[in-house]
Amino acid sequence: VRLRPAAWYVEHDIELRLGTAARRLDPRGRRLELASGELLRYDRLLIATGAVPGRPALLSAGANVQVLRTLDDALRLRAALARRGRLIIVGAGLVGQEVAATAVAVGARVTLVDLAAAPFDTLLGPALGPWLGDLHREAGVDLRLGVRVTSVHGTGRIRALRLDDGAPIACDHVLVGTGVRPATAWLAGSGLEPEGVAVDAEGRTALPGVFAAGDAACPPDPLAGRHVSAGHWEAAARQGAAAARAMLGLPARPPALTVVWSDQHGLRLQRVGDPRGADRATVDGDLRAHDFTVTYERAGRPVAAALVGRPGALPAVRRRLHAAGATQPERKAA
Amino acid sequence: MTLIPQIDESACLAHGDCAVLAPQVFALEQDVAVVIGDGPDALVRPAARACPAGAILLVDRDTGEEVE
Questions:
Q1: B63-67 long-range CB contacts below 8 Å, 24 or more apart?
Q2: Which residue in the set A237, A254, A318 is minimally distant from B54, CB to CB?
Q3: Are the C-beta atoms of residues A51 and A183 closer than 8 Å to each other?
Q4: Residues in Cβ contact with A163 at an 8 Å cutoff, skipping those fewer than 6 apart
């Protein structure tokens, strides 16, 4: 998949070297060693090596089990869905939810399994977790929450998965959507964190001249009180732009509210701001009609909103949150 | 044609949905969407509503008011 034509890179004086792995970072010599052994010198370096999907050991093998990360993964999943068989999705995060919604719409029988009892609280905030679970159930998704996969049946192909709550569930195809880990192991020994590079809000790492953005980077999360990967396309796009400005010595742009969106069961779901730790949620609209806004407040201040079926309301909601000073979550007391 | 689209550049993330749905009205220029022309409301409204980032405001040409 090419996001830009080859001519764009030439026009902008960018040397594009695909299929080239980085092997080692030498921060003292300001050099990057490639897998070929070639050394590249840098004044500024951006680490944007992304993440790789994780897979539980039980589900690491089988002709009909896959993750969803690449174009090939997507084509393979599409072929499986076209057979309208029984699909088990392990992991009810954004990938699991979106695939479940699409799969039931094209006629597959879908079971969605997650270790967490309330995996739907994240996308639209805790006040709407139960609503989102009901949305999946009413569309025909078989939800198995707060359960673990304990064994796999079948040789070569997975015929069934057994959960710790009882009988095996038969399947034709299995999708694993249990999250990703930063692809930063190659940084071991560089002084940066091989489990995901800690950065500030503009992408600076602890090493001079070295920046990181996207899934490889862990910016500060004031609410959690630590550095964590944001794990979403929107955040990666913003982090890349912020790091580029810092690398060029340009002043930082004012922080923007995070927007996350997902299309599920024919509905546009959007969240703006960070609803974690909210102590009040106010509904405007009709939950049953799938047409509403929920505003989250923390200590009397609006901090986030969730919109369902109301894409046109987002600009006004965002302005309202900005005006109320919701741009930055307050720092945790030290 | 009564709806005038405006791009909130601080919100736009260049997803490009607007430019796909209404190519005579929206285009991507570097990393932001821009308004390049006029179009009927029936084209402009769905293209603006498709924006995942909610970065396209619609203003009624006659009243100057923002519409949802």
A1: B66/A315, B66/A316, B67/A312, B67/B3
A2: A318
A3: yes
A4: A113, A144, A147, A148, A149, A150, A169
Q: Is the pTM of this model over 0.90?
A: no
ipTM of the predicted assembly exceeds 0.90: no
Do A118 and A128 contact (CB within 8 A), yes or no?
no
Task: Encode pLDDT of B22-68 as tens digits.
Answer: 999 999 987 889 999 999 999 999 999 999 888 999 999 999 888 87
B65 and chain A in contact, CB less than 8 A:
no
Other CB atoms within a 10 A radius of the CB of residue A73 amount to 14
Beta bridge partner(s), residue A204: A211
Query: Is the CB of residue B3 less than 8 Å away from at least one CB of chain A?
Result: no
pLDDT tens column, A223-278: 888 898 888 888 888 899 999 999 999 999 887 788 899 999 999 999 999 999 99
* Chain B residues within an 8 Å CB radius of A270: 52, 54
How many Cβ atoms from other residues are within 10 Å of residue A116's Cβ? 15
State which residue of chain A sits closest to B51, comparing Cα positions.
A311
- Candidates A251, A292, A223, A208; CA nearest to A30 is A208
Chain A residues in contact with B49 by the CB 8 A cut-off are 311-312
Inter-chain CB proximity B11 and A259 less than 8 Å = yes
Nearest chain B alpha carbon to A255? B10
The one-letter amino acid at A227 = H
The partner residue sitting opposite A311, judged by closest CB among B49, B57, B67, is B49
Q: Which residue matches tokens 């899934």?
A: A215
**Spatial CA neighbour of A147 closest among A108, A90, A88:** A90
